[in-house]
Amino acid sequence: MRPVRLSALTAVAAVTALTAVTGCAEKGDAKGGHGAVSVTAKDDACEVSTKEFPAGHVQLDIENKGSKVTEVYILFPDDRIVTERENIGPGTKASLTAEVKAGEYAIACKPGMKGEGIRQQVKATGGTVAKRSPEMDKAVAAYRTYVQQQADETLPKTKVFTDAVRAGDIEAAKKAYADSRIGWERTEPVAESFGDIDPKVDLREDGVADLEPGQKWGGWHRLEKALWQDKKIGAEEKAFADTLDKDLADWVKRVGTAEITPTSMANGAKELLDEVATGKVTGEEERYSHTDLVDFKANVEGAQKSYELLKPVASKNDAKLVAELDKQFAAMNTLLDKYRADKGTYVFTSYDKVTAAQRKELSDAVNALAEPLSKLAAAVVK
User: Is the full-model pTM beyond 0.90?
Assistant: First the structure.
């Protein structure tokens, strides 16, 4: 889960260290390409070149003219996420390709990557439907099955964790914690698309200030803090365990209704790399348990699954890109394997034992993979 609110230090780090991770982000002027919608993100504005465009495949050409790292979303009227691009540094630009049906949407810019964002209401018009080949339909169907499977497998793993919490067994709960999160981390962009579930189950402590009035901080990371920092399980923690089970059961029921397209799969793969860059490499995601490398590996696996399913289409349209992605995924997985003794398990080195030089090496590998991965959506719809 990316934080709802970035600290000043994190924001500066994101600007300096993560600009490369935005993939298409680079210095210069962003002028919309043919048929593209230009989005100019500022600290106090979100400007779009047109508020009406044809349904089908739409490209956003984004430029951040503000002083803060920003992210840009296309949202359904009920705030579900169509697609997004995170970590767009000041003075950089990025492009985002999405598949949209005719209807009302909002384009939102979120300076500092927090809050509700600054929104522009837009409309996709006409009866145009994005063309899909049988290969694309097959990829979407297979990914939908994968996401549902990951969600279904998360419930029993989480119950092992929450049962230990309810029993007051701190050591057993610690042992089950990281494993309970793998399925979620593999498919997080789909979970985040619902809007309300992610803050309930995966909010980090630095996002607490942005909770709704009366809403308590709960979920995995609240229990993580109790186990590793507070070293206690009380009545409140046991109640949070019950709520986590309930919220994840709701997620499992709703996964089948998620809007999934070839472009959302491709963009979701990039989002998972953004998750690695903003939370795992920095050590912020699992700041108490230091199980960041488990999440890291799960994020990479989820991104690779989307890529592998889209690869038959991408290979026809951009063989060079596919060759580069094959190379970078292999390099990333080889590097991660250095931090576990047994490739058949998810027992990784505690992240507080990973040196600054090693974190830099991991960050460089993420950057090297994220750059070509940001081009996958465009390759799929060529």
Answer: no
